[in-house]
């Protein structure tokens, strides 16, 4: 069965390069991002209090605060709990046999949302695309060839990112992320 901590290792490779940028503020975004958790999207996440204390303590030197926060076990535990409860458990990824399939779905869900990631996976394996993981979806995912799924899921991710960057109402805002999103899709 797929393992949450292995999928987290994949996610870590994509969310930061060094401890000095695990906390950052992206141009054009409101608030901070810590370990891929965007403040505007998740304002009630339990880790923000600890992060703001560190930011103030290090006099708004974000890279210094980032390094200190990266070493904080209590914050790391909150990060892992967040990803497990908000993404992994919601999609029942522990029921997937293939680690590769679970990684693909998990990483895309973190970047978009669980329901969208599940629907993409369901379309590929021929399950009803309702965004909910039930017994039939699990059976179809577990019966599907992992290499084939990897290729097809990457193509589905890239098609979605292309839509966001070039067709959606907010394309001007999203276009600058397109290349990074495509690289992210191909990396898993």
Write the layout of secondary structure elements.
Elements: H1 4-15, E1 23-24, E2 33-34, E3 37-38, H2 48-57, H3 62-70, H4 73-88, H5 99-111, H6 114-125, H7 135-143, H8 146-166, H9 171-174, H10 178-187
Antiparallel strand pairs: 1-2, 2-3
What would you report as the Rg, rounded to the nearest angstrom?
Answer: 17 Å
Could you tell me the strand content as a percent range? under 5%
Spans of 5+ residues with little confidence (pLDDT < 50)?
none
Shape: globular
Kindly report how far apart the N and C termini lie: 18 Å
Overall CATH class of the largest domain:
Mainly Alpha
Helix-strand sequence: HEEEHHHHHHHHH
CATH architecture assignment of the largest domain: Up-down Bundle
Give a written overview of the molecule.
- Helix 1 (4-15) packs across helix 5 and helix 5 runs parallel beside helix 8.
- The chain folds into two domains: 4-86, no CATH class; 94-187, Up-down Bundle (Chitosanase, subunit A, domain 1), CATH 1.20.141.
- A hairpin with a 2-residue loop joins strand 2 and strand 3.
- The chain is mostly helical and 188 residues long.
- A three-stranded antiparallel beta sheet has the order 1-2-3.
- The protein starts with a helix and ends with a helix.
- The longest helix is centred in the last third of the chain and has 21 residues, at 146-166.
- It contains ten helices and three strands.
């Amino acid at each position: 069965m797929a393992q949450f901590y292995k999928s987290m290792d994949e996610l870590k490779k994509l969310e930061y390069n060094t401890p000095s940028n695990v906390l950052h503020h992206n141009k054009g975004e409101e608030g901070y991002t810590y370990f891929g958790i965007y403040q505007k999207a998740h304002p009630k996440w339990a880790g923000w209090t600890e992060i703001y204390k560190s930011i103030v303590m290090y006099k708004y030197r974000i890279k210094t605060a980032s390094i200190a926060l990266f070493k904080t076990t209590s914050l790391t535990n909150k990060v892992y709990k967040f990803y497990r409860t908000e993404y992994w458990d919601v999609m029942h990824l522990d029921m997937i046999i293939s680690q590769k399939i679970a990684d693909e779905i998990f990483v895309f869900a973190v970047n978009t949302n669980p329901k969208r990631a599940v629907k993409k996976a369901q379309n590929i394996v021929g399950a009803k695309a309702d965004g909910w993981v039930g017994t039939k979806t699990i059976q179809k995912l577990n019966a599907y060839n992992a290499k084939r799924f990897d290729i097809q899921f990457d193509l589905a991710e890239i098609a979605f990112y292309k839509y966001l960057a070039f067709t959606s109402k907010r394309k001007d805002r999203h276009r600058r992320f397109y290349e990074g999103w495509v690289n992210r899709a191909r990396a898993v």
